[in-house]
Amino acid sequence: MGTRYLAHGMVDAEGLLTAADEPLAGLQHACGGDIGGTVAIPELLALVTKAQRYGLRLARQFCAIDGEERITAWVEIEPTTATDGSVAGCELAIVSWQTEEMPREDEVEAARRRSEIARNLSDLAARLDPDQNVLSVEVDAPDLTRLELAMQGGTGRPWTDFVDFPGNTHLQPLHWRLLDGAECTVEGSKRSWTAHLEPLGQPEPGSAGFVLHLSANKPLGFHEFDLGETKTPDAPSLGRDISPVLRQPINRIIANAETIRTKLAGPLAEEYSDYAADIASAGQHLLSLIDDLSDLEIVESEDFVTAPDRIDLGDVARQACGILGVRAREKGTTLVPPVKGEGQLAIAEFRRVLQILINLINNAIRYSPEGSQVWIRLDRIGQRAMITVADQGHGIPEDQQEKVFEKFERLGRSGDGGSGLGLYISRRIARAMDGDLTVESAPGQGARFTLSVPAAEELRSRPREGPDATIVEVPEGK
């Protein structure tokens, strides 16, 4: 008895699907391809490539997702030969075709994956308040320098004031869900950009503000990268000259690896998903090393200074815990930040204190046993405001406690993804803010890292008397 085929298709020597019957044609379109374009079904493309490369007749099962259903099909692939004996393409014959409804994806997990990919592709990250007003901004791409300066000078204004949305005449800012994924243009950049808004706060997303990520539709080439007159040809700067060029391709490697790992592009064998996870992890390690070396160059420069301001250490701690919350859950660690409303006013640079706390909390998560807790506590002694990160790890022997603050010191640890620079850089920053970073620990009793900075006095309002009365702020107790 002959085999009954459900559909046929033709692929040429270049891997282009030149003809296809339904339902194969419909699946090609659902996977983002066209008739006449490259085979867009990932597992089928791998089989076609193998058959053409080795001239083999194959009969294999492949799986795919058309957006709503999971398809499992059996295909026979017959290479065709040209007059000179070379492979001219192949014929496809679909023997079976089964569909099943896709299981409903966990919305929280899906949102987390989208946020991970957006962060890895991002060339700009800005912290926004619940009304989408700019609080702070950091930029990695040189063609966003003008936007960075504009946002820094316009804190408190909606982020949508600083970009353009082609064809959109609606009053800005719109609801954040309508802006998530929106394309925009930026003055001073020839590239187009996609915005991703990561909501913060529970149970209402966005109640604690947002993180805005802008990612470009294409990487910036070397010929487009103007270093400006400040570049010193014989002594290039890692942070200013080299880091922006390295970060973009590494970010895209990580993002593509994450897309493969999480199977967003379609089904994939588990071993290949594991390979992609290794690629993403190695990329993150390399990116962290670049960040640490860039920070090292900055903090060791003679002109390094911070920008002190009145900040609340409690707010910084809660934000740091929010940023690292997913990582802590993955490691089975519980973060215990100061409760909402608890604060400690200080004179320091918000961004630098956040950088130090993220490093300390990240270390605590990394070296704490599963099921343990990491506490963040506030205190004040005299004119010093303090914030302590305490863990339940193995602790640090007394004779090694000062060594952890030395450059490239890792106390014999290997394979943990650290560079040995985080605590050295954090202490340099703390001392640049007229503060310090210290540790108390004992073997088997965890470690307590304490950042101390100048304390700030409470402000209260006191009206002046008279017809031209104004409000003046004075320190509490004066």
TrEMBL record:
Give positions of region: Disordered: 450-478
Q: Where is the composition biased (Basic and acidic residues)?
A: 457-467
Q: Which controlled-vocabulary keywords does the entry list?
A: Kinase, Phosphoprotein, Transferase, Two-component regulatory system
Gene3D superfamilies listed in its UniProt record: 1.10.287.130, Histidine kinase-like ATPase, C-terminal domain (3.30.565.10)
User: What InterPro entries has UniProt attached to this entry?
Assistant: HATPase_C_sf (IPR036890), HATPase_dom (IPR003594), His_kinase_dom (IPR005467), HisK_dim/P_dom (IPR003661), HisK_dim/P_sf (IPR036097), Sensor_HK_Regulatory (IPR050736), Sig_transdc_His_kin-like_C (IPR004358)
- What enzyme class is recorded for this protein? transferase
Q: What is its EC number?
A: 2.7.13.3
Give GO MF terms, alphabetically. Answer: kinase activity
Q: Which reaction does it catalyse?
A: ATP + protein L-histidine = ADP + protein N-phospho-L-histidine
PROSITE patterns on file: HIS_KIN
Start and end of every Histidine kinase domain?
241-457
Say if the entry is tagged with keyword Kinase.
yes
The entry's protein name is histidine kinase
- Organism, per UniProt? Qipengyuania benthica
